[in-house]
Amino acid sequence: MEYFNLQTDSNAFCVTANTFPDGVLEAHQELHSNVGYNSNRIYLGVSYKNTNGSIIYKAIATKLFPNEENEHKMENITLKKGTYRCKKVNNFKILFLNSNELPF
């Protein structure tokens, strides 16, 4: 596990997965269809347990500027400055297998 230090609050667009883990790919696909790729954005996924113990997953893309228009009515969130535990994935490609396709 690594640490990432976000120097300032950052406004972002967000798509919440309908389910976890099955809805993760769909959340990222929706996010990327609404927010085109730009090397100045940070793209990430955040997961956490809610009060019921269910895992909530959010696909996130930072805004290019604070008041960037939200044409697709995605959730707007603010990533608070601070230090976060993370796992950085270089050259990320989404690959999901059905549970019956796993090699173990």
Q: If you had to describe this structure to a student in words, what would you say it looks like?
A:
The protein has one domain. Helices cover 11% and strands 36% of the residues. It contains 1 helix and 6 strands; from the N terminus they run ββαββββ. The strands form 2 sheets. The protein has a 4-stranded antiparallel beta sheet with strand order 3-4-2-5, with helices on one face. A hairpin with a 5-residue loop joins strand 3 (43-49) and strand 4. The radius of gyration is 15 Å and the shape is globular. The model is unreliable at 95-104 (pLDDT under 50).
Overall pLDDT confidence:
85
Please outline the major beta sheet: 4 strands, antiparallel
Gap between N and C termini: 24 Å
> Quick one: overall form?
globular
Can you write the helix and strand succession as a string?
EEHEEEE
Strands ordered across the widest β-sheet: 3-4-2-5
Number of domains: 1
Spatial extent as radius of gyration: 15 Å
List the uncertain runs. Answer: 95-104
Helix content: 10-25%
How many helices? The count is 1
Strand content: 35-45%
Structural class by SSE content: mainly beta
Could you give the count of β-strands?
Answer: 6
